[in-house]
Amino acid sequence: MDLGIKGKVALVTAASQGLGKAVALQLAAEGAKVAICSRNQEILDEAVHKIKTETGGTIQDYVCDVTDENGVKNMIEDIVDDFGSIDILVCNAGGPPAGSALDFNLNDYRKALELNLLSTINLCNLAVPIMQKESWGRIIVITSVSVKQPIDTLALSNTARAGVTGYIKSLSNLIAKDGITVNAICPGYTKTKRVENLANAFEANGNGTIEDFYSKLENDIPMKRIGTTREFGQTVAFLASQGAGYITGVSLQVDGGYIKSLF
Ligand code: NAD
Prior knowledge:
By secondary structure, this protein is an alpha/beta fold. The protein contains eight helices and seven strands; from the N terminus they run E-H-E-H-E-H-E-H-E-H-E-H-H-H-E. The protein has a single domain, classed as 3-Layer(aba) Sandwich (Rossmann fold). Bound molecules: nicotinamide-adenine-dinucleotide. Nicotinamide-adenine-dinucleotide is lined by residues 14, 16-20, 38-39, 65-67, 92-95, 115, 142, 144, 157, 187, 189-190, 192-195.
């Protein structure tokens, strides 16, 4: 199936590894010109090399911390200078530390909001006017299943991502008339460094072994396995496609059935 995004310019943030990297790879494989960022040049170089080798596509890296308001502004200007536009924006960032609601002080909550909520708002504020000029755009924000079924041990994530979900629904309603769709993708447990870190924290906190962590998870998932980054990347690529042009304002879970609610 041709997704119709050959030649479109995509920015995927926090994409040197994990879900972001898988999304960048899939978009490059579909013929988009892809810009990726993260904070570490060396890891970015490895990601660019892998994506170029696997797809033969156009990919360019930018060192940028998504919480640095001016750094993000400069990066967006550089991408427009280098590629002429931004048609597809995939907002991603690292996940905040694990812990329950009373484990954190106000500053911890502030940092989580900076990382996951305010970074998204900043990116959208900067990219939307560029998309409006073209009367076409796709914004996809990576959130979490925790927006539909909060996870007791991820209170910072539950809190920040609920804000993101409210924000993207507000934004999607506002700019649908401009040909721009805005959606969230809610990953369930997917095999990345983030999940490895959660497994290590589970063991370090005396909750059981790493094997216990994975078998408990898999038991809670109707498909009885955690997801692959490839499955995740392919879903994001679909939402970026021409064919997904009438889908906006949704939070779509990619979770093997993990969320138990109706919506
Ligand atoms: P990961 O830790 O494997 O990768 C995170 C990426 O973000 C890395 O490339 C890292 O360098 C980059 N990054 C982190 N902070 C950044 C910053 N301030 N500025 C720029 N780049 C930054 O994580 P992942 O598993 O790929 O998860 C991506 C997002 O999805 C996270 O927010 C995570 O909490 C969320 N999520 C992941 C899962 C999962 O199972 N993997 C499930 C639900 C939600």
